[in-house]
Amino acid sequence: MRAFFGLFLLLCLGVQMPAAFAQAASTTCPSIVAFGGTPGGTDNTAALNAALSASSGGRACVYFPAGRWALNSAQSYTFASTLASITIEGAGQDVSELYFPNATSGLTFNYNGAFDSVHLKNLSLTSGAGANSTIGISLNQMQTSNSNPGNTALSDISNVTLRGADGYLVGAHWGTGVQVSGVSNVNFYGDYIIGPAGNGVVLQGTSSNIPVVFNFTNTFFNNLTT
């Protein structure tokens, strides 16, 4: 209680908090730096895999500080069990950039059941190519049937920008910004998907696994084919 009132008093007096404290207060996820991540041109694939594998029970959380973080190949993660969850977050759109320089897709998450979930927030995914076959973010349900798709865990893509690595409306772009296959209950909030070509969001399923409930709030689509 005494520590709380001390912090409250400092905030009221306008005292600037140290940068290290500010970062700790903004996220509880371990930093990618702790697993060997390096901003710039270094491939961070091994660091990301290590970060996602470090947590037990398939419940992983990783934080990307400010900077451009290169991932030289498509990143795919398959949940080993249901009731598992992954959070990947950054310091802000175009502040933390996950950069895919090659003509590959970005982040793919394969759900093992209705109660797995993914949470992506406060970052940008950029493509170094203009291939129409690439997908920025893919949420894929491996469970072939679901009699009650509304009874699933909640996933979200919040404050995420998907664009070309060369800027806005230049040449590079994702073929599809986000593809959701058989996954229900997904919130899109504060997202920005921009061309100069490609698809925004693709929602698909099957007759035995019909995905339901998608909320789009403060989300923008600009200069896309579809």
Characterize the structure shown:
- The protein is mainly β and 226 residues long.
- Helices cover 13% and strands 37% of the residues.
- It contains three helices and 15 strands.
- The strands form two sheets. Strands 1, 2, 4, 5, 7, 9, 11, 12, 14 and 15 form a ten-stranded parallel beta sheet that branches. Strands 3-6-8-10-13 form a five-stranded parallel beta sheet, with no helix packed on it.
- Residues 1-13 and 15-25 have low confidence and may be disordered.
Structure, briefly:
This protein has helices at 2-12, 19-26, 45-54; strands at residues 59-64, 67-70, 75-78, 85-90, 96-100, 107-111, 117-127, 135-141, 155-164, 176-181, 186-189, 192-194, 199-204, 214-217, 220-222. It has 226 residues and is mostly beta strands.
Question: What key attributes describe this structure?
Answer:
disordered N terminus; 3 helices; five-stranded parallel β-sheet; 226 residues; mainly beta; single chain; globular
Cα distance, first to last residue?
54 Å
Rounded radius of gyration (Å): 18 Å
Structural class: mainly beta
N-to-C order of helices and strands: HHHEEEEEEEEEEEEEEE
Count of helical regions: 3
Estimate the global geometry from the Cα principal axes. globular
Strand tally is 15
Low-confidence segments, given as residue ranges, are 1-13, 15-25
Calculate the mean pLDDT score and round it: 89
